[in-house]
Each structure stands twice: as C-alpha cells, then as structure tokens.
Amino acid sequence: MNWKTLFTPGANISPAEVSRFMAEHQPGDYQLLDVRQPKEYEKEHLPGALLLPLKEINERITELDPAKPTFVY
Fold it and tell me: Domain containing 53: what range?
C-alpha cells in the first residue's frame, strides 16, 4: 500500500454517517486517521485517532491496516 492508493477507492461520507458507523462498530474494527499537524492534534482530536501528518504518510503508511475501513480527517 502507498499513500496514493490509500485514498483512491474510498467514498465521501458525511460526518453523521461516520458517527453512525462508529456507534455500530467496535473501535478496533476501523481506523481514524488524523492528517493534520501535531499542534492541531494536540489541541483536539477524536479519541483513538492516529496522527499521521500528510508529509509523513510515505514513511509511515505501514502503520495502517489496509483491511480496515479508514476514516481520514
């Protein structure tokens, strides 16, 4: 997997749809990927979100499980 294919097959869904999905599934069933900068993440982030700033995706892409749904913000 590389960063380009990470975003290719996905669909855009609304925040309400993501919230509903999260309520219906266990936290380990999906991934929350926060691509903002560390200071933004430190200020506030969704519980369980992995911080992976866009500029680090190439080096850290292996931290993601390609088999799990991934919600990126």
Answer: 3-8+26-72
Query: Within a 10 A sphere around the Cβ of 34, how many other Cβ atoms?
Result: 19
| pLDDT of residue 3 exceeding 60 | no
Chain-centroid distance of CA 34 in Å reads 6
For residue 47, the 8-state DSSP code is T
**Cα–Cα dist 27/49, whole Å:** 10
**Model confidence over 6-48: pLDDT tens digits?**
556 667 889 999 999 999 999 999 999 999 999 999 999 999 9
> Within a domain: residue 15?
no
Any domain includes 63: yes
Q: Alpha-carbon torsion 72, 43, 24, 63, what sign?
A: positive
Q: How many domains are there within the chain?
A: 1
